[in-house]
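ASSEMBLY PREDICTION REQUEST
Request ID: AP-0331
Submitted by: J.K., bench scientist
Number of chains: two
Total residues: 593
Priority: normal
Notes: Please return the full assembly, not individual chains.
Input sequences:
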Amino acid sequence: MDILIGIKFCGGCNPRYDRKLKKEEIENKLFTFFKALKTQFNIEHAREDAHYKYLIVIGGCSTCCASYDQYKADKVIKIKDISDMPIEIYSFQEEQNGVEEIL
Amino acid sequence: MLMTGTEYIESLRKLNTRVYMFGEKIENWVDHPMIKPSINCLAVTYDLAQDPEYADLMTAKSSITGEKINRFAHLHQSSEDLKKKVKMQRLCGQKTASCFQRCVGMDAFNAVFSTTFEIDEKYGTHYHENFVKYLKYIQENDLVVDGAMTDPKGDRALAPHQQKDPDLFLRIKEVREDGIIVRGAKCHQTGSINSHEHLIMPTIAMKEEDKAYAVSFAVESDAEGVYMIYGRQSCDTRKMEENADVDLGNKQFGGQEALVVFDDVFVPNERVFLCGEYDFAGMMVERFAGYHRQSYGGCKVGVGDVIIGAAALAADYNGAAKASHVKDKIIEMTHLNETLYCCGIACSTEGYATKAGNYQIDLLLANVCKQNVTRYPYEIVRLAEDIAGGLMVTMPSEKDFKSDTVVGKEGETIGDICNKYFAAAPTCSTEDRMRILRLLENICLGSSAVGYRTESLHGAGSPQAQRIMIARQGNISEKKELAKAIAGIK
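STATUS: Completed
Returned structure:
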């Protein structure tokens, strides 16, 4: 079964970094990561009628005020800074087969 | 259903709104070069709501239907909602560098919603039920509503009923079985021409003698008897110049105000939300003003963000960015701007639930917010003009910069001469320098100064109105007790 990942942006009133670029960076990293694991994944803007393995909330500042209670997700990961990455997802491989960290 | 910006603009074309400008009726006002930028601003409030990057601020779940709606049509359900409102306004200010006009409706919705609940509670009327039905219609159709409060007011020393001309405050002319006939006008109406609907509120607290003036209702903008006379703005006819671009400073966006006249307009009962219950006029005014004074802690901050960015760019382009006094001025502008934001967030954080269930801002802090807004933008533009330099207001026109008319002894054109003498730091083109200076001119003293300067002073009530509220809310007696306790006075 494909891993379903949702992305939710904060509203962007005074972002300290480019959230769109960050989303692309995260998508690229996850593509590499899941490809190495030979695991299919889908990433999309969060919808209320979906259930996500991971919901990544990209906030433009440390407040990260985006609301996300309306979404169903096993795990919520918050990005609050340009250097943040959804590293929690990397533990996915350990859950699956216990292999060493790839990224 | 949420509309796109394009759908919003098309929806305006279906209205038969009567608009007058320069003494004439404007038939195609949607495409009029002086009006279009203000329509573009409102279109942004629709387009941002469609964009996942901004939707968290721009949309909300309706407390009436449970559906996703534009936040501009939302009844605030929590302090978090109040804060998101301010953040949304900052965002819209950043994207337009203008007054985007939609907050008056939002502030009116929340004020009328809670006030009608309390009127019904006291008098057994059905205004709240009327209003909830009305707002459901607005939310479901994603409409723009002008929340209209300010009457012409005539002689300020006289109450509404004492005015020589009874129409100087909007009034109930006749009560019929099926509705009311209203007559009068509302001044300075932000975005009125661009609104699908008008939601009218009284302008001051009233006594029994002014019962006929205690009225709140909604009408379509093209209702029989409603018409609008466009308000002039500084440098507005630059927008009428052929191929105008750089000289406009902000080609795409702008604000709008108009005089809205109600020439014996019929309002059906289901659209009436206050009709003679004069003791609630003050509550409606105070609540709307409170929300609107909070609003300025968001929208003006967003425009301030653009001014600070433009001033910093002007410093770069002038080659002055490293000067310590320039750096300090940018810091001061930022400090002033973020202080306004602090006030907007603070009065939201201290918000509380009304009897009707929606959230109201802290009145004292909202009034402090607006009082600061009457001052700080003036200092921000002063500093911006300081950094920009005099060229901001002495620069030749775009046509000169592009002119190929030969004027020099060696065949130089007017354009060559302008580009030669107005070049500055090698990191920018003369055109870019001209663009950023014109943007500053537009906001500091051009057409957008209506929104950033004078609206900051008088919009949502002139400075003295906030001082009266601050005096009422200041809790001075408690402060005296604090001082007595410390001083050992019994």
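REVIEWER COMMENTS: The interface with chain B takes residues 7-14, 19-20, 45, 65-67, 70 of chain A (CB under 8 Å).
SIGN-OFF: pending second reviewer
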